[in-house]
Amino acid sequence: MTDTLAKPVSTDSPGSVLPAAPSRRRRGREARTAWWLLSPAGLVMLVFTVAPIGYLLFTSFTDYDQRSLFTGFYRMAGARQYSDLLADPGFWHALIRSVLFTAAMVAGSMLVGIGVAQLLTRLGRVLRTTTTVVLVLAWAMPTVASSLVWSWLFQPGYGVVNWLLTQTHLFGDLTQTDWANDPTLAYLEIWLLIVWQAVPFIALTLYAALSQMPTEPLEAARIDGAGELRAWWSITLPYLRPSLKLITLMSVIWDFNVFNQIWLVSGGGPNGATTTLGVYAFQTAFVTFRVGQGAALAVVTTVILLGLTATYIRSLLRSGEDL
Asked: How far is CA 72 from CA 62, 65, 69, 75, 270, in A?
């Protein structure tokens, strides 16, 4: 009872009082209550996030392979696992492909997303609602389903895209063109698919930011004679910069980890031309059954993405923004 009936503490000013500070016993009880309330979420994170990451890290230091799946026997490979990985030319080729492909996908997604967001601000209510619904439906489609549909669209013989391009008479007869078996066309097909999937989220997020933007600065710029492009560059772009930074970082992480679309459209081919780091890790772990080295690839990928995230957080802290 003493902690609940503590006397108020008087200040230097007569007549003013402050509430009594909670006692140590009460603070301890509140802390235990908070830990009990957080424990279900903490247990879920421990079982489904921390434990798999720990097992992945442990496996990356072993020679776990197909034999280990049946016998349970494996040996510790230690740091040699990573030195062998860094000496593997296939790893560096996959890393370079991942970086270049990610840059192309993020650039395309951001440019088209910004354009669609600006378009939404100019549309009337009915058209804007219709466009928003279409974007949400496209975004909500599972990646496996959309990848399979995309493959059918570009199939030789009966693919709709090949037929439409042939009807334009600009590229000749493309009805028998197999996009997935040509390195350049395979990249273009996957790039179009991923940009199509990424644009709805980027466009709707930027439109939400634009809808909260005050109109007075833009009106003042137009009165002063600034063109639309100049006003967008000098006023709208600085206003969108925090949102653009966050979306760009998320797009880099998502696109660097793209696997389903590449695997379902081209399978990493032809001749490994579309094998990015994620596809290479899958092939190493589950096609050639070098599970230990596949785990090391996954760890290296995670470290690269953590480095990118740390760079972004550091830039936020330097600019004085909250996390």
From this structure: 12, 10, 6, 10, 35
